[in-house]
Amino acid sequence: LIWGFSIMSTELQPELLLALLNLVLVMITYLMIYPRFAGRNVNKLVVNDCLAMLISLAIAGAIFQDTGYDFSLLVIDVNWFWFSLTSYMLIETPFALRYIKKHKIFDIPD
Known about the structure:
Elements: E1 6-7, E2 10-11, H1 14-37, H2 42-64, E3 71-72, E4 77-78, H3 80-102
């Protein structure tokens, strides 16, 4: 049991815990924060996205640093940092593509 995270008396696997953390963070940022604070501004979007990723890494580090736990990325085992970074980027990609298309971030007027 890591920091008391459990669902219905069963422990969450560390990979699932970090994936859920990243999913919730990405959903909050792309569905609530970015439309209000970044809009179509690429610079604001990039800065806010870097901050969100740093928040994810900080939380993952606070939970898993110095635990020695190996996270599985299907074909290789990695530490908490690389798992959190990779899973964040994989989860974020469809949200980012949808946001870019919906808000016409890179549309160039004629």
